[in-house]
Design goal:
By secondary structure, this protein is an all-alpha fold. The protein is built from 3 helices and no strands. It has one domain. The longest helix has 105 residues. The protein is rod-shaped and about 155 Å long.
Length: 174
């Protein structure tokens, strides 16, 4: 008698089924362990990404605040320079008013100094003084206006350059 024949066939099928089911159960347990490991790894990765995002946001805020501080500082400097330029322009205008007054006085006194000269020469001299005085006054006004405009645009340009230079120094650090 064969020993295999002593065991009924259904027992053989049952033991094969138990072995196969045990193998499948082992695979399921291993897959669950790997899944849990992957979940933990994913969770760790998400935490790292969140930390990086927070650091990047903090750095961006810090950089934005630094840039704003540079722009504010340069803006304040430009405002101070403009105030100084306005003061200088006011002083120059005051001096110009004095010069215009002197020109007007010379115009008014010119006929009195020319009494001994012939009427014809006096008229020509007076008109020349009047014309030259008028030209001098007008050119003085224009020069003052142009100097003021030039000073304002120079200050604004320097302020813009300083802000841009402040921004560029950050980009090279990144």
């Amino acid at each position: 008698m064969n020993w295999r024949g002593a065991v009924p066939a259904w027992c053989w099928w049952l033991s094969a089924l138990v072995v196969v089911a045990g193998g499948q159960q082992y695979r399921v347990v291993v897959a669950q362990g790997e899944t849990e490991s992957a979940r933990v790894d994913l969770s760790d990765y998400r935490m790292q990404v969140i930390k990086r995002e927070r650091r990047a946001a903090a750095q961006a805020r810090t950089e934005e605040q630094r840039r704003q501080a540079v722009a504010d500082e340069e803006g304040e400097s430009a405002r101070q320079k403009l105030e100084m330029a306005k003061g200088r322009a006011a002083a120059a205008e005051s001096a110009a008013v004095g010069l215009r007054g002197e020109i007007a006085r010379l115009r008014a006194s010119n006929p009195a100094t020319c009494d001994s000269i012939a009427a014809q020469q006096r008229q020509a001299g007076t008109s020349a003084v009047v014309v030259l005085g008028g030209l001098l006054e007008e050119s003085d006004r224009m020069a003052g206006d142009l100097a003021t405009a030039l000073e304002r645009s120079r200050i604004a340009g320097l302020a813009c350059e300083a802000v841009v230079d402040g921004m560029k120094s950050t980009r090279s650090d990144l």
